[in-house]
Design brief:
alpha/beta, Rossmann fold, 8-stranded mixed beta sheet, 10 helices, 38% helix
Length: 276
Amino acid sequence: MPYIKVGEENSASIDIYYEDHGTGSPVVLIHGYPLSGASWEKQVPVLIDAGHRVITYDRRGFGASSQPAVGYDYDTLAADLKTLVEELDLNDVTLVGFSMGSGEVVRYLSRYGSARVNRAVLLAPLQPFLRKTPDNPEGVDGSVFDGINRAVVADRPAYLKAFLDDFYNVDTYRGTLISDQAWQLSWNVAAGASAIATLRCVTAWQTDFRDDLAALDVPIMVVQGDQDRILPIDSTGRRLPALIEGLRFEVIEGGPHAIGWTHAAEVNAALLDFLT
């Protein structure tokens, strides 16, 4: 199994698990919370068949990567991505971030620039700023995040059940676009993640990316479902065309948060079209 070292915690190294398949122009896929790089299974073969080198990796704390107690802020997470890009010597790369993964993409471009990056895709994004403040009235009330923190601490497995129900809009799509088995696989992966990471990432979601967005200088596409219950589109994606010049914005009608699974054909078509 391939790993890249991104840091140390006391006596242990912090290692990121990644997979690197195919040949051609590189695409890095950055997964959402609380899953792993394996959650891109409906995109990876399609991109390989289209002539791309496809790299997935597990965020620290998740999947097969190390589970440190530190580093769940976007400066550190973007630095992990930078290490991966440089260790694999990727150039003209397309960065694709889903949900929490959109944060690594935006912070990477803002902090490290676009010398190695050709374009970027944000699927069901966190941006511009998820938490409601006096100067960000479109955000989500802080009490929502406080409630999530309490739920994770009180009973993380039960919280994950409720989260994944809304992740897939199970009440609408169970048995059609999301099977019980696929849902269970997601829960199994989520339950295997670090309990500390699961909690501390909630703080990262509340990062203010508005200044980062102003620094973006590559073509950007946003794709989001209009029935997203995790990151409501009116608080996130629909605000971005006014903040990112030249943004391509694709709305998937009826799409929940997990559009890469439930609406894979539409997501893949948008990705392939944007990459050409």
